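User: Here's a chain of 367 residues. Predict its fold as tokens.
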Amino acid sequence: MEMMILSILVPALECEWELDELQSALVSTIVFCGMMISAPIWGKLSDFYGRKVCIILSALFLFYFGVLSVAAPTLIWLLVLRGLVGFGIGAIPQNLVLYAEFLPSKLRAKCLTINGVFWSVGTCFEVLLAIAIMPTLGWRWLLAFSSLPLLLFLSLGCVWLPESVRFHMTSGKSDLAFETLLKLANENGTAMPVGGLAAVDNKIKERGQFKDLLSKEHRCTSLILWFIFFSLGFSFYGIVLLTTEMFQMGNACKATEAIQSQHGEAYCTYKSCLDTQDYIDLLYTTVAEFVGIFVTVLIIDLIGRKKTMAFNFIMFSLFVFLLNVCVSRSWLIVFFFIARCFIKGAFKTIYVYTPEYYPTVVYKLII
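Assistant: Prediction complete.
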């Protein structure tokens, strides 16, 4: 929800605060800067204090500054607060880290991919909120309501969240690891396997070192994965933000005003604000994520992780290229729908591949 709101917030601020292009870009960019700075910090903190602690702390951080953004009086204050929101969002991969550590290998790909459904539910819910709130109450109320699910997690959901068994083992807390395993066995109506837990190295300073990513064993894969994550971030959030930008442009193929530039080229009108129909069309393109997850679930174990990623990237690139073709708005929505479908599939695939490749104490750093 906090990521999807960027494509809705920027057009609203352009309309109300009359932002120029650079100021509009900063509203989105500052969030990603916060994520970039905080992701390795949250990863390291998770090594020292546990996944559960950092997930709860980041949710509290995200909720607090998300609500505080509602009262931002100026653009500078909004940028500071949204940057801090981005800092909290940087811990989101820790949820997948924790989840993956509890999954059996034969179900890991499907479970991690299906887990993305809830991200997509959040993006769709954000658009529905915008349809209900933006025409009457405006963007400040949208920011406020968008933070409420985090309050629900902090007050209720975190009670049932377990700590990582692997974290307890690598930090020398085998008794707590055993308690968690025993609880899981009881909840699943089965008995604990015969035997005890093997001791592991419990030197905290040796867990999750950044240099491990560039060791001889992992260097090549790490560099490739960094490029893939860069490409995915650029493509996924790019297509989300581009959708509302093109909706604002109206008909980009035919000039709607008889105004000529210095070079004699006609240009189109540019709407400052999104209307209800724009939000409905945005919802259509957002639903594509569910299709992307379904397709990925079907093929990821059949053709493998690498081929699934390649297939999704190729299909995404094809339909993004088609956005350059002058077509009606209906076809434009179709192209956005298919492109977003496949880039979502690629995103989920990399989150399956990464934890499977790296040792437990290393892979959280990559994301």
